[in-house]
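Annex B. Sample input.
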Amino acid sequence: MTCVFRRACSVAFFVCLVPCLALGQTAVMTGRIVDAQGGAIANADITVSTAGKPMRSVRTGQDGSFRVDALPPGEYTLLVEALGFAPSAETATLGDAAVSLSIEMQVAAISEDVTVRALAGTIATGRTTLPLRELPLTVNTVLRQIIEEQAANDLPSVLQNVGGVHAFTAYGVYE
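Annex B, continued. Sample output.
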């Protein structure tokens, strides 16, 4: 009877111990983030995720290295983001032993966004439907005496006497 009791206790002990040991198994993921030339990328943000578990985030040190402790075995996705580099996604399978990764990041393409906003209202165009007599106009005149005194013999020379008006010529054509 005592022998049966001992065996039953031993079996119960192992049945309880094996799941506890399995729960305690974790591994460490380490690595280094580098650029195309092998230079370390400091302060890169790394997000480690796997199905059914909360995401964990770490940041690389000045030497580009990172370490994520206490990860249960499984398949993980690493999303690496750093200023000036294109985001990189890697997958790694973690077993009972530590895993060391080297992730190379590519320089991000140069992009520029320009947003133009306009207020609702009337858009000014080159033509209008208003009669000419209703438009605000400024009329300047150049006296004949001034034209003769300056010996102005073409339009750009005459327009130099009118404030705020500039005539440009290109190959003899007025613009």
